[in-house]
Specification:
alpha/beta, six-stranded mixed β-sheet, globular
């Protein structure tokens, strides 16, 4: 079976993994990772902020597996940002809807019939009429799964580090709030792919 493609239509998972100083867990998945352009811009737009600098260096320094997917709204807003014009307040949400519903977005991956994992945190990320090869996974669900297959020893310390920041350069204001504790969301695809982990950390 083919390796699944991981799609990030939401900045939440990367923000949470950064808070816990665990961005490298995404590389342990050893799968292609698609980041929506508006999400990339949201994550990296303020380089005076350590999180944005760290995330930009991480995403830019690991292509592949990361790839930035363009959306019409994301491109329009990027043009405005470069020209110094005001941005739409809900541009990120619109770009995500654009990606989830357009022929060049999520449908592009689903139409091929290949397995796709949608990694999210935002409760507003919804997929209706879920195709049989689409796997829905939250950040907490990802960590629980990585624990089950032995990539990490325990998910709880990482979740605690996300909700109670202790890594260097993290502030109390960076703390994450999860509504899917304790187990997270992990809705498997009916038709998926097989994956053997490389071993424990």
């Amino acid at each position: 079976m083919k390796r699944a493609t991981l799609i990030l239509p939401d900045a939440g998972p990367i923000n949470s993994l950064w808070v816990a100083d665990e961005l490298s867990l995404l590389l342990a998945l050893d799968m292609p990772i698609v980041v929506v352009d508006a999400v990339y811009d949201e994550l990296t737009s303020d380089l005076t902020y350590r999180k944005d600098r760290d995330v930009k260096a991480f995403l830019d320094g690991h292509q592949p597996p990361f790839r930035i997917a363009t959306t019409d709204i994301g491109q329009q807003e990027r043009g405005k940002r470069n020209a110094g014009r005001p941005l739409k307040k809900n541009a990120g949400e619109l770009a995500i809807v654009d990606f989830l519903s357009s022929e060049n977005g999520l449908r592009h991956y689903l139409q091929a019939g290949d397995p796709v994992v949608l990694l999210f945190e935002d409760a507003d990320v919804r997929v209706f009429n879920k195709p049989p090869h689409l796997h829905l996974l939250s950040t907490v669900g990802l960590l629980r799964g990585l624990e089950r297959v032995g990539i990490i020893r325990q998910a709880d310390p990482i979740i605690h580090a996300m909700t109670h920041p202790i890594a260097p350069g993290r502030r109390p204001a960076d703390a994450r709030i999860f509504t899917d504790l304790p187990e997270g969301i992990d809705e498997p695809a009916r038709i998926g792919s097989t994956w053997e982990p490389p071993g424990p950390r």
